[in-house]
Amino acid sequence: MPRRLPPLTALPAFDAAARHLSFTKAAAELHVTHGAVSRAIRNIEDRLGIRLFERGTRSVRLTPAGAAYAAEIGAALDRIGAATIVATAPHSAGVLNVSTSDGFAGRWLVPRLHRFHRANRDIDVRLSTSGLHADFIRDGIDIAIRYGAGGYEGVVSEFLAEEEVSPVCSPELLQGEHPLRQPSDLRHHRLIHDNFRIDWATWLQRAGLDDINPDSGVRFDSATYAVEAAVHGEGVLLGRSALVSADLAAGRLVRPFDLALRSTSKYYIVYPDGALRQRKVKAFRDWLFSEMTVGQKDTGSIR
């Protein structure tokens, strides 16, 4: 019995419009005109004999039938995308495209990547560190390391690690005229800030210190530069355990105090459904878990 299908070429327009609740944004995503999106959706509605959108003067919203249809169509397109990745994998078996943040790439991943290459000489890793959540299909990404609350839709998400935040500094700051021995000694040192959500105000409050200005010191948008500043003795950084673990293990940084705060965000390995059928993706995913376990043993700070 032949399948009853809608106009297949119109489905991406419907999916994009349903996700954005905007024909204009859907058109921008697909690089077509607003009229092309409108015609595609009207074509589907005419074929199905139902209304998928309620159209207002400056907005659109899904009808109940449209919302139910959009959920199924979106899931189907995700499965088609995952199948396409698997089907085309033999043509790019030697290249693994990885998406992650600049800080995680620079401070955790890159210092360890030589070990992955040594064990997998036939796989070339290419890193994307735009800071945005990559679209696996559109951007050609095979696997991602994301930092957040989890619950990523349309993909497989595996918990990788939790993280703690605590002051770190160069060993040089444990000596000198004002050695760091207790939290109150911070009043003699410059605070280093990055753009992380747990800031010095939170840590100082937990430490019971109200006579230190939490906004003083030097600030960086990049976690990578903030860590480098701490390594070179420019001050004390409220360091994220994953991003300072290599420097702690090498002795370039030390923790002068015991007080650490647990971050509510966590690291996740994220990839399209079916991607582990590709050896390159499974090899990298397994290696990430192995390296994170080693890091926990070395520093005792990432769980």
What would your notes on this structure say?
The protein is of the alpha/beta class and 303 residues long. The chain has 3 domains: 8-88, Winged helix-like DNA-binding domain superfamily/Winged helix DNA-binding domain (Arc Repressor Mutant, subunit A); 93-161 and 265-299, Periplasmic binding protein-like II (D-Maltodextrin-Binding Protein, domain 2, 3-Layer(aba) Sandwich), CATH 3.40.190.10; 164-262, D-Maltodextrin-Binding Protein, domain 2, CATH 3.40.190. Helices cover 41% and strands 17% of the residues. It starts with 10 loop residues before the first helix and ends with a helix. The model has no long low-confidence stretch (mean pLDDT 88).
Uncertain ranges: none
Trace the largest sheet across and list its strands.
4-3-5-12-6
The computed structural class is alpha/beta
State the order of secondary-structure elements, H for helix, E for strand: HHHEEHEHEEEEEHEHEHEEH
CATH superfamily of the largest domain: Periplasmic binding protein-like II
Task: Using the alpha-carbon principal axes, give the shape.
Answer: elongated
Q: Quick one: biggest sheet?
A: 5 strands, mixed
Mean pLDDT: 88
How many beta-strand segments?
Answer: 12
Classify the fold: give the CATH topology of the largest domain.
D-Maltodextrin-Binding Protein, domain 2
Count of helical segments?
Answer: 9
Keywords: DNA-binding, Transcription, Transcription regulation
GO molecular function: DNA-binding transcription factor activity; sequence-specific DNA binding
Pfam family, one: LysR_substrate
Organism: Allomesorhizobium camelthorni
